Amino acid sequence: MANILIVDDDPIFCAPFVNYMKKLGHQCQVAENFSDGLGLAIDSYFDVIFLDVILPDANGLEGINNFIDAHSSPEIIIITGQSEISGAEMALNNGAWDYLEKPPSYDDIQLTLKRALQFRKNKIIFEAQNGLNTDFIIGQNVKLKKCIDIVAKAIKTKGNLFISGETGTGKDLIAKAVHVNSKRANANFVTVDCTNLPDNLVESLLFGHLKGSFTGAVNQSDGLLKQADKGTLFLDEVGDLSKNAQKSILRVLQNKKYRPLGLKTEVDCDFRLISATNRNLKEMVEKGVFRKDLYYRLVTYHVHLPPLRKRVDDIKLLTNHYIKKICDQFGINTKAISKDFVETLILYDWKGNIRELINVLHSSIANAMNEHQLNPHHLPVELRIHCRQKNLAEKSRLGQGVREKLEVDDLKFPCLKDFRRVNESQYLDSLIKLSKGGIEKACHISGVSRSGLYNLLEKHGKKINS
User: What is the pLDDT of residue 408?
Assistant: First the structure.
């Protein structure tokens, strides 16, 4: 038995659909709009969600990631009309399991649902059995967990892994996780910084050379490929490779052999290749600055790490972890953190991601060396100014939303709890005007109790009829 959610506003379609799901032995709920559906997905556990494209309050395709990121990570099946098929196909690239055209036949529904549930069952079993050592990767975010799932699959094979993501997202940690959990863990993990790989020394550094093979070769060198034999070679910032370096690496990947400079015979090599970059390799291929044949060699598995601003639920975890680590380095007791310290960190944009967070925490701990708790005033001034400006801009935007609703009737006027961050005084002025000074109507419109509303009015020096 599975838990099914149908997000569709067509009762003629939904009623028989629900009956059919129950006939198959599943539990089934219906949401008639996007907001209600997402609320159910967040609050409850669902195995599969049938999501309509055209909904009263949103486009299902545009919000598909919100459903995928729900805590139960449900499989999403798109319900689409003929004219929306191109969009539904696009949804598959965003993680949807499949799509069905309206009106779908019950045979198609049963087959698609059966396959989705079998896939989900196998995925859960696989996740329970992988037992990866990822203690050094901090976070519980859904997007990060999906990256770890790909790592778990990659380590079972010899396929090359490509890691993309912004600077500072932890691409090196993902590469390390693949190595330490693989059968190559006892061999070397060799990192090549492709940004510092001189074009005229590429083959010497990668392949090694014999003594006297070129001017300046006073000693024999094994090269990085030899060091990585039976282990893992990590090409960091692979997008910065020169054309000559790309050609040399492609040849090694194709033949699994290389020839050190000065040696007449080729040498076999056996290594797992992991590459990473913060650049868009697909665009580079289209522009002709990165070899297409090399790109396809690199990307057997692809992990795209989310930026920290997409993992705000992990910021407190990361902060606690690195504060302890930094305090240990300083030889001081681990500092506590205040609630508003964490709230400020969450509000920040983190363009430098986790690397920037670590630097900020270093600075904050240094500023609070003799204090036991970190507070916002210990943060760098530039960060505090940015967060204050962002907060004021958000309040201004929400305040504008209230002003735009001043002339609507009381059925559409927002409750105070929905606008906690706007100026309360402004809200009360609008409320008094709309309720015509009547306390009962004002309480009804605002969703605030009589005593609570009187307290707010007294706080701002305003009056209303009792």
Answer: 45
